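Students often ask why inverse folding is considered easier than folding. One informal answer: many sequences map to the same fold, so there is more than one right answer. In these notes we will look at a single instance of the problem. The structure comes first.
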């Protein structure tokens, strides 16, 4: 599968685009309008030094070649017309994902395999909207995909086993370590472990127990971990915990969502990629 289309060019979508292009794939980056897509060149310039820092084989020439393999489009029909595989990385809301796949189903070639990068939602809840449930499954990436390079592959009861293996192979071709998940699980493996950890940290914050800095410092000193929970929030970006938390049944998660909107999102502090979140990276 050489031709990839990525739907959504946010923090993780843009990383998937760049990583696939760096690995030799031809990539179309789709988003809703040209204004959003116009921000991508700055994103590539942000990612390049991170690749040079973290990947021994990265060179300026290879990174420029990756950018040359990326095409942008705000026309969905144009974006998917040649796709061998489509990875959807739109906001983490079931209704948005279902609507997106309904639109894609009417436009994509018959050959195309469909993948969602959802971090919490089940493929079986989206599959009926794809028009080809046997060719639909999840391929979930961790943030900073070039270095934290897991690719969680999770199908649903109707996923063709051959398609499942094709996606696992594709993940390997773009530098991921395929993690084959044998049963649907909300949060997959990574977020089943990570989300309760992050929720515990945000609960400590909104209850006034300790500051983000002291919570992070405690975790790193006591466990030897390289990052604390609020440093991880900065890598994930503020929009994901806000989107997940604002309608949560947990009042602490709703309070945390309101807090990060007021103190960070409304001020343009969207996390590490924007130069500032709980910490400054400018």
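Output (designed amino acids):
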């Amino acid at each position: 599968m050489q031709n990839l289309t990525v739907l959504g060019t946010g923090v993780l979508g843009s990383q998937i685009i760049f990583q696939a292009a760096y690995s030799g794939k031809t990539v179309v980056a789709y988003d809703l309008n040209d204004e959003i897509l116009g921000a991508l060149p700055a994103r590539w310039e942000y990612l390049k030094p991170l690749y040079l820092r973290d990947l021994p084989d990265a060179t300026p020439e290879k990174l420029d070649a990756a950018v040359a393999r990326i095409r942008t489009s705000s026309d969905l029909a144009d974006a998917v017309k040649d796709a061998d595989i489509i990875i959807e990385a739109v906001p983490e809301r079931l209704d948005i994902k279902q609507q997106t796949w309904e639109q894609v189903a009417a436009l994509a070639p018959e050959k195309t395999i469909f993948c969602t990068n959802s971090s919490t939602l089940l493929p079986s809840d989206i599959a009926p909207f794809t028009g080809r449930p046997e060719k639909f499954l999840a391929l979930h990436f961790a943030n900073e995909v070039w270095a934290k390079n897991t690719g969680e592959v999770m199908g649903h009861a109707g996923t063709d086993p051959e398609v499942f293996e094709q996606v696992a192979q594709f993940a390997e071709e773009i530098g991921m370590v395929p993690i084959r998940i044998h049963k649907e699980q909300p949060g997959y493996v990574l977020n089943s472990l990570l989300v309760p950890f992050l929720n515990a940290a945000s609960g400590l914050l909104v209850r006034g127990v300790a500051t983000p800095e002291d919570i992070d410092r405690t975790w790193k000193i006591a466990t030897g971990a390289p990052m604390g929970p609020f440093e991880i929030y900065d890598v994930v970006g503020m929009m994901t915990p806000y989107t997940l938390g604002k309608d949560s049944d947990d009042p602490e998660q709703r309070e945390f969502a309101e807090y990060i909107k007021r103190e960070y999102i409304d001020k343009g502090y969207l996390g590490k990629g924007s130069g500032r979140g709980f910490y400054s990276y400018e």
